[in-house]
Specification:
Number of helices: 42
CATH class of the domain at 98-204: Mainly Alpha
Radius of gyration: 42 Å
CATH architecture of the domain at 98-204: Alpha Horseshoe
Shape: flat
Strand content: under 5%
């Protein structure tokens, strides 16, 4: 009696696959019972995740029948069986009484669990070549089982090995493999491989096959290829279904091609394709997002044509889309229809309609709409109040606010809307009156109200009142919103109240709120101007810790002050922090550091920064260039920067006349006459002439060379020298004449 790889209750079912070999060996059609058994075995064996337990239980293939000299103990201890290396190689006609499809399936599973990829391919190919009955069912059992267990590599390996021998699983198994590859891997190449093998094997792709391929093409960015596959479906006799249209429309919208999506919807309506239940719920939000009301109305009519009742979300998406396109009457009618159908409209639906009316100046109709629909939530009324304020119609806003509270639809947000609008219009005193009315009405102002007042007083220049409001914020342990915080800091800096500004900064930072970059730059520049460099560095560090990286402007303010205080080593530390924080270095940063290093004896570092600056395609200003060149001339190191200067000229930058004079003089003194002449040529091409010192040095060097050459050659003239001297003379005369 053989030993089984599968549990007994599964093994008996899998044995049904061999029924075809005895009852219908010569039949070309698969046995229904065998196919059902294979499907059941695959689901039970792989779906129950008992592969590992079966393999570790020491179970052996059912077809393995030990003969002459092979005993049970030898098989149990045989490493070859567990590795799968020699299971079939060792088998001869004497050792195997019968090789069945389920036996191959058992060995393939064992090889997969042992990690023997080559063995898997070899056994599958051998199984296919044997042309045993029910082979397709066995292949489907393996591929589907491995997909169900998430072992897509093994499933694909079995599929590839079978295809290499001209045998394919059923189309349902192929579709399942493609779906798994799409869901788990998103690998287009593997999915296309399966699709091509299906076509080569004579398997006609179904609509599910093409849907999977189209989805994969869209996911990998091959939009045009996906559309091409969609257009070719009808020509191949494959009729698109609801899933096809849904996939194409969704992905066209996502890829910014909403107009094409509209055409696809027209095609769907024309071919009278019945949509799936989730079709409308997935398409309508996209039509709202891309603001296509015509298509949204088509989709809504399509729902009614197929007897699909719209839900709350469909209604709200359509109403919003209509309002955005100015179709307000239709939107208002839909709100009434929702109520008649027993669907309570969402607050967002009311707000959308109100905003739509206000957008075109129909304030009275917005009010009538809310009252006729018995709306008692404050949000739609607040939207109308905010619209009055945005239009600057403050008297109407005040009256409407009073009416809101009379009808019991006002709240704290209503007071804050009017207060903020008045403060933004630099009318903080009127806002204070509204705040007094708020308190009289029994409502307590919150941090939003006081933030608005602080912003209003700051913009109006009433800094003392802003400070009084901030004292109340401190007492209540509130925080300011970003706009009010920024306005307050700007006002304090403008009034030179730096200590107060720092106090506000420390308080807000302690609450975990960062200062906007522009306001931080302003504050630190004022602190540096006051000479409080330590405080400036501290503020910058706190801001960084609060998640607000400093800009190059902030760093430049501190670096400039450090250099003015003759503290270049601290400036270099700050420069290092810029690099660590990945702050973009600008021209001003480089120039500040180079000039600072030049004045403090850091010529070598200044030269390195100069080279790095040019390599970053940034051009130094003339002041920085001259400062560095003067330092290099003093220490006779000009020849070390020639390459950087050449790069600067190649980038289209032009040196100023003082820079040329310094370079030429220094190179002549350092005995680099050829380089000096090169820069002289560039100088003359720019229409500049050497100054008296450079001119004298040039003539002296050239004259000395001429005398030396005359002694060597016996001649008394040098044409090249004469041309150079004459060129300099002519250039001087030309400048004088002009």
């Amino acid at each position: 009696m053989g030993f089984k790889l599968l549990p007994s209750f599964l093994y008996g079912r899998l044995r049904l696959l061999t029924w075809r070999s005895t009852s219908s060996r010569f039949s070309s059609s698969p046995c229904p019972a065998a196919a059902a058994a294979a499907s059941e075995v695959a689901g039970a064996f792989f779906g129950s995740r008992r592969v590992h337990q079966c393999l570790t239980a020491g179970l052996k293939p059912a077809f393995w029948q030990p003969q002459d000299g092979f005993h049970r103990e030898e098989l149990d201890s045989s490493p070859e069986l567990y590795s799968g290396a020699d299971v079939f190689r060792r088998g001869s006609s004497r050792e195997f009484r019968q090789v069945t499809p389920e036996g191959y399936a058992q060995v393939v599973v064992r090889l997969v669990m042992a990690g023997d990829a080559q063995g898997v391919e070899a056994r599958v190919k051998e199984m296919v070549k044997a042309d045993l009955p029910n082979m397709e069912e066995v292949l489907g059992f393996l591929v589907s089982g491995f997909c169900g267990e998430g072992r897509l590599s093994d499933a694909l390996r079995v599929f590839r090995a079978a295809c290499s021998e001209g045998r394919l699983p059923s189309i349902s198994v192929c579709n399942g493999l493609m779906d798994s590859l799409l869901a788990e891997w998103g690998d287009l190449n593997s999915l296309v491989f399966v699709y091509k093998e299906m076509v080569k094997g004579g398997v006609v792709p179904s609509v599910d096959t093409v849907n999977c391929l189209i989805e994969a093409l869209f996911r990998t960015g091959h939009v045009d290829a996906a559309i091409d596959q969609f257009r070719r479906m009808n020509r191949r006799g494959c009729v698109p279904n609801s899933k096809t249209f849904q996939t194409v429309m969704l992905n066209l919208c996502v890829n910014g091609r909403a107009q094409e999506s509209s055409k696809v919807l027209d095609e769907m309506i024309e071919c009278r394709c019945k949509p799936d239940p989730d079709f409308f719920g997935s398409i309508m939000p996209l039509l709202r997002k891309f603001n296509t009301s015509i298509e949204a109305k088509k989709l809504f009519k399509m729902m009614r044509a197929f007897g699909v009742l719209p839900d709350l979300f469909i209604y709200c998406d359509l109403i919003h889309c209509l309002c955005e396109n100015g179709e307000l009457d239709d939107a208002a009618y839909l709100v009434e229809e929702m109520s008649e159908m027993g669907i309570a409209p969402d607050i967002d639906a009311y707000v959308s309609v109100v905003n739509g009316f206000c957008k075109v100046g129909r304030f009275n109709e917005a009010t009538i709409f809310l009252e006729s629909n018995d709306v008692f939530e404050p949000q739609p009324y607040n939207a109308l109040l905010k619209a009055y304020c945005s239009e600057g119609r403050f008297p109407h806003a005040g009256n409407f606010l009073t009416k809101m509270f009379e009808n019991g639809v006002g709240d704290n947000i209503s007071w804050n809307i009017l207060t903020r609008a008045l403060c933004d219009s630099e009318n903080p005193r009127k806002a204070s009156e509204v705040l007094s009315r708020m308190i009289t009405s029994g409502y307590l102002p919150d941090e939003v109200a006081f933030s608005s007042l602080i912003a209003g007083y700051s913009k109006a220049g009433e800094i003392s009142n802003a400070l009084l409001c901030f004292q109340h914020v401190l007492a209540e342990s509130w925080v300011l919103d970003s706009e009010s915080y920024s306005s307050f800091i700007h006002a304090l800096c403008h009034e030179e109240m730096i200590q107060e500004a720092m106090d506000v900064f420390y308080y807000m930072s302690g609450k975990g709120h960062s200062l906007p970059a522009a306001s931080l730059n302003l504050l630190i520049s004022h602190i540096c101007w006051k000479g409080l460099i330590t405080e400036a560095i501290k503020l910058r560090s706190i801001s960084f810790c609060n998640g607000s990286p400093s800009s190059s402007t902030t760093f430049n303010s501190i670096i400039l002050r450090l250099l003015e205080l003759k503290r270049p080593q601290h400036a270099r530390v700050l420069f290092s922090q810029m690099l660590v924080e990945d702050c973009a270095l600008d021209v001003k940063t480089y120039c500040l550091l180079i000039r600072g290093l030049c004045t403090t004896g850091g010529t070598k570092n200044a030269m390195l920064l100069f080279a790095q600056m040019i390599n970053s395609n940034l051009a130094p200003d003339s002041e920085t260039t001259v400062a560095l060149l003067n330092c290099l001339e003093e220490c006779s190191q000009m020849h070390k920067i020639v390459h950087s200067l050449d790069n600067l000229v190649e980038q289209g930058q032009v040196l100023c006349s003082p820079a040329y004079n310094i370079v030429i003089r220094a190179l002549l003194k350092e005995a680099h006459k050829d380089e000096a002449c090169k820069f002289l040529d560039q100088m003359l091409e720019q229409g500049c002439v050497p100054d008296a010192d450079t001119h004298g040095l040039l003539v002296g060097n050239i004259g000395g060379e001429r005398k030396d050459k005359s002694r060597q050659t016996g001649t008394t003239d040098d044409s090249v020298t004469n041309i150079l001297v004459e060129g300099l003379t002519d250039a001087n005369e030309h400048i004088v004449d002009e």
